[in-house]
Amino acid sequence: MPITINGSGTISGASTLSTTVASPVFTTPTIDSAQIATVSGSAPLYAARAWVNFNGTGTVAIRASGNVSSITDNGTGLYAVNFTSAMPDANYAVAVACGRPTPSNDGQAGISGTPAPTTVQVHATTAGDTNFKDFDYMHVAIFR
């Protein structure tokens, strides 16, 4: 029997009416490097496992990040990038870049010490200088 609602909002045609609506279930898809399509050619495309853009001067502060829980300021131009979820091992690649709003000096950045599954130490300096320097823009990406 069809259910109808008249102009006054009265429901007719059913002895009982259920108002229960099932809640949708959302899941986060799991995507691994084998599932990522290549742009061209047959070389695989790998996504970053962690990344961060942070202010490396004064009180360090994360601007944006993925799988990075915090940044530790270990002194002038020295920082620890701490991962939210650990890497499977320490055999990952680290890309580090640094810069300032005005390009008065060329920035150079790299890793310091031995990477660990939960953290990586990075540093920054200017070209031709062996002393570490703080930079306004620090960028770190982790690939594995």
Short description:
By secondary structure, the chain is mainly beta.
Give the arrangement of secondary structure elements.
Blueprint: E1 4-5, E2 11-12, E3 50-55, E4 61-66, E5 68-73, E6 78-83, E7 93-99, E8 107-112, E9 119-126, E10 137-143
Antiparallel strand pairs: 1-2, 3-4, 3-10, 5-6, 6-9, 7-10, 8-9
Describe what this molecule looks like in 3D:
- This protein is mainly beta and 144 residues long.
- The chain has a domain at 50-143.
- 0% of the residues lie in helices and 39% in strands.
- It is built from no helices and ten strands.
- The strands form three sheets. The chain has a four-stranded antiparallel β-sheet, with no helix packed on it. A four-stranded antiparallel β-sheet has the order 5-6-9-8, with no helix packed on it.
- Strand 3 and strand 4 form a beta hairpin.
- The N and C termini lie far apart (61 Å).
- Name the poorly predicted regions: none
What is the share of helical residues? under 10%
Taken in chain order, the helices and strands follow as: EEEEEEEEEE
Q: Can you count the beta strands?
A: 10
Average pLDDT, rounded to a whole number, is 83
Largest sheet: 4 strands, antiparallel
Structural class: mainly beta
What strand order characterises the main sheet?
Answer: 4-3-10-7
- What share of residues are in beta strands? 35-45%
Radius of gyration: 26 Å
If helices are DSSP runs of H or I spanning 4 or more residues, what is the number of helices? Answer: 0
Head-to-tail CA distance between termini? 61 Å
Question: What descriptive keywords fit this protein?
Answer:
mainly beta, about 140 residues, four-stranded antiparallel sheet, elongated, about 40% strand, about 0% helix
